[in-house]
Amino acid sequence: MKTAHFILIFCLLALASPFAYASDPSPLQDFCVAINDPKDEIITFFFSSPPVFVNGKFCKDPKLAKAQDFYYSGLNIPINTSNPVGSTVTPVNVAQIPGLNTLGISLVRIDYAPNGGLNPPHTHPRATEILVVVEGTLYVGFVTSNTDNRLITKVLYPGDVFVFPIGLIHFQFNVGKTNAVAFAALSSQNPGVITVANAVFGSNPPINPDFLVKAFQLDKNVVKNLQSKFWWANN
Questions:
Q1: Which three-class secondary structure string do you get for the chain?
Q2: If both were cysteines, with which of 69, 89, 110, 222 could 99 make a disulfide (CB 3.0 to 4.6 Å apart)?
Q3: Lowest mean pLDDT among 35-44, 67-76, 128-137
Q4: Rounded distance, CA 63 to CA 66, Å?
Q5: Could you tell me which of 190, 185, 200, 197 has the C-alpha nearest to residue 232?
Q6: Positive or negative CA dihedral for 42, 43, 44, 47?
Q7: End-to-end alpha carbon distance in the chain
């Protein structure tokens, strides 16, 4: 009987272990500079087969790494926020710095227009975010998971820092009369972003309106109107 209990506990731990890792896998070497296509390197395949997909990016030969693989310039430049939400996100992840591959970290600059520029409610499925305000005044917050759905908010000023836990819906809103700028670090080389309104009402193909009517308790004409809008997507 004890053996059966031990096996059951072992199986449960084995099943739970993949969920214990909340960030990208740890690198097994000093670095792994990403390449977009394995054909960029000399790779020999024993069989003719479709392309191989990996969890992350293929690695460049470390001996071929150069400073440019770990470098990005331009985060000091203000970005135009003339768009429907009044904000622009400038990402610096593995797509911009291939040397970030396997390192489990990335960065963004966020510019907000005065008087209501916002980064709409969204979530990062693969990363916790830590944000610091360098200009302006931001009202920020996140919502905890079901069933509490508790809203946790704070007004931030230059030098203030706020953390958005991994996977939780969060937002930032410029409550000041001047431009605002923030920088955020994320615990993934490719944190991903799901903007709630875009995903629900701007999916391709569209979600069945009858489903959304029932899920959100809205009039069908309201749902169709929302689905007809152009949904602005920040990176």
A1: CHHHHHHHHHHHHHHHHHHHCCCCCCCCCCCCCEECCHHHCCCCCCCCCCCCCCCCCEECCHHHCCHHHHCCCCCCCCCCCCCCCCEEEEEECCCCCHHHCCCCCEEEEEEECCCCCEEEEEECCCCCEEEEEEECCEEEEEECCCCCCCEEEEEECCCCEEEECCCCCEEEEECCCCCEEEEEEECCCCCCCEEHHHHHHCCCCCCCHHHHHHHHCCCHHHHHHHHHCCCCCCC
A2: 69
A3: 35-44
A4: 9
A5: 197
A6: negative
A7: 54
Mean local confidence (pLDDT), 44-58: 60
Q: Which two tokens stand for residue 220?
A: 């069908």
How much is the pTM?
0.82
